[in-house]
Structure formats: structure tokens, C-alpha cells
């Protein structure tokens, strides 16, 4: 094993601005942990771009190597649950936030953060699942559990995004009638190929919501927040559930209590980062059986660490559709 490795690293300048560079790091620079993993793939998530641009809500101290997802091979371990050569997936917890993450060729993490790769999946397929698959899978599990599937209408917002696109596939495969909300009309055919029955432009949701509106959805997977979420809430059918996953538009939500009182709807928060490893393995295996990875192939871009420097700012501007994979061997 070479003790020096390449890592995308973010530095805070003296004037408070941030810059990203590919640098050479030593294994000794990694935090202590039970499992040393040689990373093959990571993926670009919204949270990674926040970390890379100095968002102190995500990463408090710099220099830092982001990357909340990693798939690779165990190179060293002090714990009997794993052996050298195991193919593993590490996602969430503190990885990539304040612990050096998957945008480096090596990570060292506690054993509780490490899962064996879902059976039958390649490394590339496993990283597609990563945080996005976990969040979509957790959301769908809640929709299914709380309100059933048969004849149910679901809506997915931020539909061309990492979480959204996987949610559209899983939702449709489970049997929901899925409406996808997107800002990109040009992606309507793509979203239909993933399983959406209808595609709606997000501008239709860019209005002040009524106190209560015509019920249209039994389940909502929202990745954006703001007016889109507020309108989805007042359009949710009795006993419907809204899985609140993300804030790609805003942290804000202005709503009212009427739909909750009259329709008994549930607003349900999703936290993929702190989900137990047992639940993770369950959700990944379940999602793996539902996802046709060929469908996603057309929307996957694979970049090297060097190319990542140009790519990550685009995710914050909503300019990326589908998944960006980071190939550490490219
Ligand atoms: P992506 O950037 O891949 O997707 C977000 C999508 O949201 C975009 O593709 C776009 O889709 C839409 N969007 C972007 N900007 C706006 C805007 N201003 N107004 C409305 N829609 C917008 O991000 P991810 O899928 O990785 O993450 C989505 C959200 O979920 C993020 O906020 C992220 O932090 C959060 N998240 C939460 C997790 C959890 O555990 N709760 C885990 C993972 C992510 P389109 O053009 O199709 O509308």
C-alpha cells in the first residue's frame, strides 16, 4: 500500500473564501478508525457541494476532504466483522462532513459506519444507491407503511436530481401512479422512462398555497422545500404522508394547520445520515431489487477528482440532472 494518496481537499483562505485542490495526503493524515478502505467510487451529492463551498452547517473545520458516499475495498482492519479484500459501502454518519470522506483515495472510519456491498451489485451500482438511494428508499418505505400503495398517487419533487430520480423509479416500481415535478421540461421523456406517468413543471407550484386545496396526492417525496412543498401539503389527500427529504430550493416552509386537522396528513422528516447500519443494509437490498440500473445509466456522468473541481458548483445551481459518480481510478 502506498502511504501517499490523492484527495480533493477544500481550504479556507484568510479572507474567508474557499478553494478546492487535488493534493497528496498521507494515510497518517486520516482520522483513527477500525476500517481502512481503498475507495473506488464516490458520488457528488448536494451536501458535498455545500461542504466544498464552506458551509459551516455541514463542515466546521478546514482543510477538509468531502464525500458522503464511498464504495471500495477493505485494505486494513482491526475488527473481526471485516476482512481485507471485503467490498464495502460507507455512507452518511459524519463521513464527508467533519471526517475525511470519499473524495480521497482512502478513508478510515469506525466499523459501525461500514456495510458490506449489497449482494449482486457492482461497485458502480452500489455507489448509485449510496445516500440518494438510501433517502429515496427510506421515504418510500414510510409512504408504503403509513398509507399503502394500491391505487395511490405519489408526487416526487426535484425529480431529475439524485434523490428524485431514484425515488421516481422506486415509486413507480412499487406500483404508485407517479407525478414528477421538475424545472427541466427537456427531461420529461427521461422522467417518463424512469416510470413517471405525468411530468409537471415546477412553476405550477410557484404560487402562494391556499389554506387547503383539492386533494391530489397520497404520498409526497419532497427534495426542495419552500412553496413547492407548501403546495404539496395542501394538496395531500386524507391520511396521506409527505416525506421531507431536502432543501434544494430553500430551508423555508410556510404552511398552516388546516390540512393536518381536516385530513390527518403526516409530515415526516427523513434522515439518511444517521440511519442504523442494519436498516441501511435492509433498505439498500430492497432498493437494489427495485432499481433497473440501465434506466439510470443515461443520466450518469462519471468524473475524475480533477474534473470534480469544475463539476461540484453546478449541483448548487440545480444544473445537474441524475447522478454524478466520482471514479477514483480515472
Ligand atoms: P440534486 O442537486 O441532485 O437534486 C436536486 C434537484 O432539485 C435538482 O436536480 C432540481 O431538479 C431541483 N432543484 C434544484 N434547485 C431548485 C430550486 N431552486 N427550486 C426547485 N427545485 C430545485 O440533489 P440531491 O438529490 O442529492 O439532494 C436533494 C436534496 O435532498 C438536497 O437538499 C439534499 O441536501 C437533500 N438530501 C437529504 C438527505 C436526507 O437524509 N434527508 C439525503 C440526501 C440528500 P429538477 O430540475 O428536476 O426540478
Overview of this structure, please?
This protein is of the alpha/beta class and 330 residues long. It has nine helices and 15 strands. Strands 3, 4, 5, 6, 7, 14 and 15 form a seven-stranded mixed sheet that branches. The protein has a six-stranded parallel sheet with strand order 10-9-8-11-12-13, with helices on both faces. A two-stranded antiparallel ribbon has the order 1-2. A hairpin with a 5-residue loop joins β1 (4-12) and β2. The structure holds NADPH dihydro-nicotinamide-adenine-dinucleotide phosphate. NADPH dihydro-nicotinamide-adenine-dinucleotide phosphate is lined by residues 45-47, 131-132, 135, 158-164, 182-184, 202, 223-224, 245-249, 270-273, 315, 318, 320-321.
Rough shape?
Answer: globular
| Ligands bound to this protein structure | NADPH dihydro-nicotinamide-adenine-dinucleotide phosphate
SS-based class: alpha/beta
Number of strands: 15
- Element string (H = helix, E = strand): EEEHEEEEHEHEHEEHEHEHHEHE
The Rg value, from CA coordinates, equals 20 Å
Helix content: 25-40%
Q: For the residues shown, what is the average pLDDT?
A: 94
How widely separated are the two ends? 18 Å
Hey, roughly how much beta strand do the residues contain? Answer: 25-35%
List the uncertain runs: none
Q: Count of DSSP helices?
A: 9
Biggest pleated sheet: 7 strands, mixed
Amino acid at each position: 500500500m502506498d502511504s501517499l494518496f490523492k484527495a480533493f481537499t477544500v481550504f479556507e483562505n484568510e479572507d474567508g473564501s474557499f478553494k478546492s485542490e487535488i493534493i497528496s495526503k498521507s494515510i497518517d493524515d486520516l482520522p483513527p478508525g477500525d476500517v481502512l478502505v481503498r475507495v473506488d467510487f464516490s458520488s457528488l451529492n448536494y451536501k458535498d457541494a455545500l461542504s466544498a463551498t464552506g458551509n459551516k452547517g455541514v463542515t466546521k473545520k478546514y482543510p477538509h476532504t468531502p464525500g458522503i458516499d464511498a464504495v471500495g475495498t477493505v485494505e486494513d482492519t482491526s475488527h473481526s466483522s471485516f476482512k481485507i479484500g471485503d467490498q464495502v459501502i460507507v455512507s452518511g454518519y459524519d463521513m464527508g462532513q467533519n471526517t475525511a470522506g470519499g473524495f480521497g483515495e482512502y478513508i478510515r472510519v469506525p466499523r459501525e459506519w461500514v456495510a458490506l456491498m449489497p449482494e449482486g451489485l457492482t461497485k458502480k451500482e452500489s455507489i448509485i444507491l449510496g445516500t440518494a438511494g438510501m433517502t429515496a428508499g427510506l421515504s418510500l418505505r414510510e409512504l408504503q407503511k403509513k398509507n399503502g400503495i394500491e391505487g395511490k398517487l405519489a408526487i416526487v419533487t426535484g425529480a431529475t436530481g439524485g434523490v428524485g430520480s431514484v425515488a421516481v423509479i422506486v415509486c413507480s416500481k412499487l406500483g404508485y401512479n407517479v407525478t414528477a415535478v421538475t424545472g427541466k421540461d427537456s427531461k420529461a421523456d427521461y422522467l417518463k422512462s424512469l416510470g413517471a406517468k405525468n411530468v409537471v413543471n415546477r412553476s405550477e407550484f410557484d404560487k402562494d398555497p391556499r389554506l387547503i386545496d383539492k386533494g391530489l396526492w397520497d404520498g409526497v417525496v419532497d427534495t426542495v422545500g419552500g412553496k413547492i412543498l407548501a403546495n404539496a401539503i395542501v394538496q395531500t389527500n386524507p391520511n396521506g404522508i409527505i416525506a421531507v427529504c431536502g432543501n434544494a430550493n430553500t430551508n423555508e416552509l410556510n404552511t398552516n394547520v388546516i390540512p393536518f386537522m381536516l385530513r390527518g396528513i403526516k409530515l415526516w422528516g427523513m434522515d439518511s445520515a444517521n440511519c442504523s447500519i442494519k436498516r441501511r443494509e435492509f433498505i439498500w437490498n430492497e432498493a437494489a431489487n427495485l432499481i433497473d440500473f440501465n434506466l439510470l445509466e443515461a443520466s450518469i456522468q462519471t468524473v475524475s477528482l480533477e474534473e470534480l473541481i469544475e463539476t461540484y458548483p453546478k449541483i448548487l445551481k440545480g444544473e445537474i440532472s441524475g447522478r454524478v459518480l466520482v471514479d477514483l481510478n480515472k
